[in-house]
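Pilot study result, target chain (102 residues):
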Amino acid sequence: MTATWWLMQGEAAVGELRQYGVDQPVFLCHFTPGPAWETVRAQFEAWSALRGQDPDGSRTAQIIRSIMDLGLRLVPTDDSPSMALFTECILRIDGHTARLRC
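Predicted structure:
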């Protein structure tokens, strides 16, 4: 069975995630940008581009905080409860693929 989620910011659709596999404990998804993608794109691209050492975690924390501040949530299409990003799940988007850990 595969799952589908809407990435939402308020009532605006940021994108759709469709599961195509699992790499425990991560769901592997195809990502299709929605109408509100451009408003959050820079933050996800910054996290995707984060490379190199981050000994104290400050660079990672700064990028994650900028995503948390967007107030994003994942809304499953199966009527399960929605999940707040970085509170109840972690999402990385890289182009048209995404990795979701809940």
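One observation from the pilot: The beta strands are 4-9, 12-23, 26-33, 72-76, 83-84, 90-94, 97-101. A full batch analysis is planned for the follow-on phase.
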